[in-house]
Amino acid sequence: MDKFTFGKYKNKNVNAICYSNPSYCLWAHNTIPFFKLTDEQLSKAKQRLDEIETAKAEWAEDAFGFGGNGLWDIGLE
User: Fold this and answer.
1) Is 2 helix (H, G, I), strand (E, B) or coil?
2) Integer distance in angstroms from the first to the last C-alpha of the chain?
């Protein structure tokens, strides 16, 4: 699928949205019966989501001194 035909990204390029909002693409792939990502798009969306999650954890480590993986990271267990 090249463009979204529904929702907030209607008429937008699927590859571009898989990069900017991979969680939306994965949600649509798993929820909307007529919308399926190609294997390549699916792989890239998952990879991008992992990149975003890693960046968030690194930011939390830099900003707060912990990775934000749980309350035990800041002594609140």
Assistant:
1) coil
2) 46
Tens of pLDDT along 19-50?
A: 999 999 999 999 999 999 999 999 999 999 99
Closest C-alpha to 53, from 65, 67, 73, 34: 67
Specify the number of domains making up the chain.
Answer: 1
Whole-prediction pTM = 0.77
Q: How many Å is the Cα radius of gyration of the chain?
A: 16
Domain around 58:
7-74
Mean pLDDT of 55-66: 80
Classify burial at 1, counting beta carbons within 10 Å of its beta carbon; exposed 0-12, middle 13-18, buried 19 or more: middle
Question: Does residue 11 lie in a domain region?
Answer: yes
